[in-house]
Amino acid sequence: MFEGFREHVNAEKSGGIIIPFKGFREYVSTEKSGGSARKIIYIHIQEEHTQMAGSIFGKLFQISTWGESHGKGIGVVIDGCPAGLPLSESDIQTYLDRRKPGQSQFTTQRKESDEAEILSGVFEGKTTGTPISILIRNQDQHSHDYSNIMNCYRPGHADFTFDGKYGFRDYRGGGRSSGRETVGRVAAGAVAAKILETLGIQILTYTKSIGPVSIPEETYCYEDILQNALNMPNNAYAEKASAYLEGCIKEQNSSGGIIECRVTGLPVGIGDTVFDKLDANLAKAMLSIGAVKGFEIGDGFAAAQIKGSENNDAFTITDGNITKKSNHSGGTLGGMSDGAPLVFRTAIKPTPSISREQETVDKDGNPISLTITGRHDPVIVPRAVVVVEAMAALTIVDLLFTNMSAKMDSLTTFYK
Q1: Interatomic CA distance for residues 262 and 276, integer angstroms
Q2: pTM of the full predicted structure?
């Protein structure tokens, strides 16, 4: 019945107030007609569900994360996971342990066990098809470390923008904008990765560079990734990066870096044209991570400096299959996977919490000098590696599920 607006004459409400409720927007105004005033209420029916606060990701394989850095815990609810997937808390713990703090001199010394508790959606070791709720309790919050910043704005943090948007913020560790928010993403990503594993799809993620120390691709040794604290695929370069970070620590400073991700085993055609391209969805997923400031796929920005004859990947036949001789496109064409390895990179900014004195202002606009105390990572990159991997897994699983309806053959095969 409601195609746009409904008019109510002689309604009791008035005043030109906008009141949102349950997907509706009610607008009350007063309009004069024939010498007398009549009151009109317009109710606009929104066609799409409104997602508040941006904590929901995905369409068919959907997650909702919750919790703050210094709250009682962090968690995630996964909706859309198929029934019958073998899943245990240890499957999730493997991923959480990779981002757990306090594992080297280059991470925050906050001590968190980050133990996953599956509260729902799993019975007798298998998913039930119902929402999976996962809780990770906070155990080592030092909220008093943040008392000196409750009324001022830390450079490089979201304090100023949170106040501007909400007029109120949880200043303890950054609240919802803290890097600890990513715990929920990693827990959900572990489930997505388990789905991909059953389909023969593998994700390998690692630190390509830290500060000025960058590893040339021809020197990669993937076996080295788990042998150094920086998750770099070359131990010799990891030693150089470690020396650089030690210098940053002495200077009371921090560093950024680049994380590279390679996905193999993807079938051709994952991703949709125009607005839901595979690379577009990956870009959004990666840029939703607080520390990420850049994204590129394949040759990325370097493609702007070469000619078309160099950038185009020639097709050939390998073992009876159509393949590419090179992979400048990074595994996508037209926004869809092309069967080659999916290769992309994310740029991670330096940790904004540094112990050297910085200039800022308080809430009243008074200039002040600020020294940040507490426990902070001198570099975010090593712990962010698994976060990038988790978001890649979540993005790909969601697009795989969407792709099942791309052909009638898929539907008839499934439902016959």
Answers
A1: 20
A2: 0.84
